[in-house]
Each structure stands twice: as C-alpha cells, then as structure tokens.
Write a structure and sequence with these properties.
Elements lengths: L20 E3 L9 E5 L11 H6 L4 E4 L10 E4 L3 H44 L6
Parallel strand pairs: 1-2, 2-3, 3-4
Length: 129
C-alpha cells in the first residue's frame, strides 16, 4: 500500500513510501508498519517511537515529534485523529474487497492440512472413528 493513497496532503518526498499495516501500540508493530504516536489519557505514544522503529516501523506519524533516524520518515500531523479515522475506513474497504480471496486461501490451506493428516492416519492404520 502506498502512503499517498491514504494521506491526501502528503509531502512529495513521501509519495513512493509503502507500508504493510498500521499500529497504535509499539508492541504490535511489524516490519514496514506505520506507527501512529498518539498522546492518550494514560500513555504518550511519542515515548514509544524508538521501540516501534526497532520493530520495523519506517513511517512515524505524530502530532509533535521530529525524528532523527535516517531510515525512518517522520510526518507531523496536527489532526491525527482525522487521519487515523481515514486509515480505518479505507482499511475496511480494502479488507472487504479482498476478504473472499483471503478466506479462500485460508480454506485451501486448511483443506491441505486436513488431507495430510488423514493420509497419515490411513497410512498408519489409524481409524478416526
């Protein structure tokens, strides 16, 4: 996914940036995820930016932090809640569009695993009854 498809007022230097997912909790960050560093009532996500980068985030979106990591893009956003909302809505549409393909892949994998299990049982003379 390209960042430009989700972020309308994106600086031109970020237009070709790709990402694989989003996270608001640094513990859930995976390689090439966007980390939204949001200040909440109890925790400030800006304090966990370094953790998110260590886990593979290459794009940090925050209301206040400017980064110094050369391999990471930092985007300042004052209306972060609106941006998060847009990402959420767009993600639902993407999931809806690809859900049949995802489910078919899962079902296919499950059928293969079950076939392998029953073949082993038959070869070993085990009865599933």
């Amino acid at each position: 996914m390209f960042l430009k498809d989700y972020y309308p007022k994106l600086n031109k230097k970020f237009v070709k940036h790709k990402f694989n997912g989003i996270a608001f909790d640094s513990n859930l960050v995976k390689k090439d995820y966007i980390f939204f560093a949001i200040k909440g009532n109890n925790l400030d996500g800006n304090k966990f930016v370094k953790d998110a980068i260590k886990k593979g985030s290459k794009i940090i979106i925050s209301e206040k932090i400017k980064g110094t990591n050369i391999d990471t893009s930092y985007i300042m956003e004052q209306e972060i809640e609106k941006l998060v909302h847009k990402f959420a809505i767009d993600s639902v549409y993407i999931l809806q569009a690809y859900l049949p393909q995802i489910l078919e892949g899962v079902a296919s994998d499950l059928r293969l695993k079950l076939d392998e299990k029953y073949k082993k049982e038959i070869l070993n003379g085990e009865n599933s009854n």
